[in-house]
Fold these 2 entries.
Entry 1:
Amino acid sequence: MMMDQSDLKLLRIFVTIVEAGGFAPAQSQLNLSLSTISSYITTLETRLGFSLCKRGRGGFSLTGEGQTVFDDAHRLFKSVGQFETKMRSLRDKLNGTLTIGLTDNTITDPNSSIEGTIARFVEQAPDVTLHLLTYPPNELLREVVTGAIQIGICSFPKTVLGLTYIDLYSEMHRFYCGQDHPLFHMPDDRIDIDEIRRYRIVGRKFWLGRDLKDFAIARPHATVSDMEAEARLILSGAFLGYLPEHYAQQFVGQGRMRAIRPDQFFTEAMFQASFDTSQQLEPITQLFLDMLIEDFNQRRPA
């Protein structure tokens, strides 16, 4: 079989499904419907000429051929990422390019500031070209795994073998409602879990159900991939949901939003720097990483 770009896309989808543990768990990562995912895998199986997996009431499992394809595809994408990194290094030699991945809407958090690190890095390595990208957490993790990003800074939804994670800081999240929601003017002492369960709750695709655990509901009434989308749903008055405290503060200050039972409904998300340690880090990557760790260690309370 001669490979082309469409085949590589199908292989990436297949790898994501296997890593997620099945079609349904992979939906949030791929942002595709079950029928579309099934159609893509059927197309890939037709192209290959054999079955890759069993799916249905019995659950998801790989065939022998499917396991071989997964192992080889995983190695292929790893090699492609490493090749691209090496080619950038050879091409840029003296100038170099460092790609850093961030997640959205962290700029209002005083704990998340990397501006000082960037300033120090640019002063010490003025010929390096910095490339900053913003992704949702699950996509950012995938970019680090494939080598498209050298350092990812995020509260990652899960850990992946082969990557190293270094704690930087924690982000406080609280549970909010908008000014037009029925709970906005209700005193906290009258609000309990049963009261909250009467209303629509937002879930984040990348949080893997953590935002629903307290309320024991099977599925969210709306899903989002970033904080701005969640804030819009909460501000509509039709939904309740978690937001980073620093991000919600602007709306709280305007009287458009309030935290519900902040004594009970809160969670902390640990932000980490993640990078691939399967091979020696490039000097410019190591330099930025060392500066980043040093800066956050200095800001961390003793």
Entry 2:
Amino acid sequence: MLSGITGGELLRDPAELAVLLRQLRARIKVDFSVKCRAGYDDPRQIFELLPIFADCGVDWLILHPRTVVQCYKGRADHQLTAEVAAACPLPLVVNGDINEVETGLELLEIAGVVGLMLGRGALADPFLFKRLRQRQLDPVSQAERSEQLRGYIGDLLPGYLEQFCGERQALMKLKDLLNFIPDPERQRIFGKMKRAQSLEKFRRLLQDV
């Protein structure tokens, strides 16, 4: 019987992880992917986990090359990513600190890497997907960046109002989103937007981004 531990804690008990993966594989009728840190507290643990993933019928591995205990400290170790790609018997998707086109394209050049998963990088710049596909290394102009951010955040407003059940909760979620946009040119206006006490005020300030 499984103990009920979840997430990264499962890496502390690979035997229990294997039981869970086999149970899931028996029920999943489509492709089965696993997103995994490199280890619980040892980044080399991933090499012990690779045979488990393969034996349990996992179809795709998504690797974030930090340990669980690191959380988001430091930088994702993509030298480790290259080592894992060389040893991995499964198609490998890479995650972790992919915040610009150059990094993404470099990772896609690694043999065995078949794709990228964007997390915080996509929150900061939702047009990163498009630029990766177009291999667009040149940065956008400040005017274009402003237009993109106004459109991005503005388009989220109606959906947030519906999903988060009210103006106050939607406003708090939008303010939290600004924390994921590391844009030195706009931190002053972002600070004003984070202090906005109404969605209407937030909307007005958005026009100054």
